[in-house]
C-alpha cells in the first residue's frame, strides 16, 4: 500500500489538499476512504473542476464531490483475464482501478495503462512482430530507412 499512498486519501480532506496530491500523482486520480479504510469513492481533476464551477471553495471537503461508485475489482475476480478485459473496455475512461476485498478495503491499485502496455510489450517481444512501412512517391523522406 505504501506504493499507492499518493492515491489513497481520507474523504475529509479539502479540495486544496486533493489538488496538491493530484498534482503529484501522474494519473490525476485519488481514491477516498473513511476512518475504517473503506472505499468511499474516487476523485479526479475533472471532478474538482466541476466542484469549483458549482462554487465549491478550496476549503470544502471532497466527500461531497466524490464519484460514489468508482469502477473497482474484487480480489475474488482478480486475474490476468479480468485485467485484460477491463483494460480493453475501460482504459480510455479509467486509468486506475482499485482491487478491493469483500469489506471494500483497498488491497491494491492497478494502473491500466501500465498493465496493458506491459502485457502488449511482452507479447510483441515474444511474437517477434516484423514491421512494414508503406510510403508513396519516391520515398525521399524515409530514404535512410
Summarize the biggest pleated sheet.
Answer: 3 strands, mixed
Provide mean pLDDT, rounded: 81
Sequence stretches where pLDDT stays below 50 over 5 or more residues: none
The portion of residues assigned to helices is 25-40%
Give the neighbour order of strands across the main sheet.
1-2-3
Strand content: 15-25%
Q: Strand tally, please?
A: 6
- Summed up, the helix count is 4
User: What structural class do you assign from the helix and strand content?
Assistant: alpha/beta
Distance between the termini: 46 Å
**What is the H/E string?**
EHEEHEHEEH
- Globular, elongated, flat, extended or rod-shaped: what is the shape? extended
Gyration radius (Cα, Å) is 20 Å
Question: What do you see in this structure?
Answer:
This protein has 145 residues and is an alpha/beta fold. The chain has helices at 15-24, 45-53, 80-90, 112-127; strands at 8-10, 29-33, 39-44, 73-74, 96-100, 106-111. Strands 1-2-3 form a three-stranded mixed β-sheet. Strands 4-5-6 form a three-stranded mixed β-sheet.
List key phrases describing it.
alpha/beta; about 140 residues; three-stranded mixed β-sheet; 6 strands
Helix and strand layout, with pairings?
Layout: E1 8-10, H1 15-24, E2 29-33, E3 39-44, H2 45-53, E4 73-74, H3 80-90, E5 96-100, E6 106-111, H4 112-127
Parallel strand pairs: 1-2, 4-5
Antiparallel strand pairs: 2-3, 5-6
Helix pairs in contact: 3-4
Question: In brief, what are we looking at here?
Answer:
This protein is α/β, with parallel strands linked by helices.
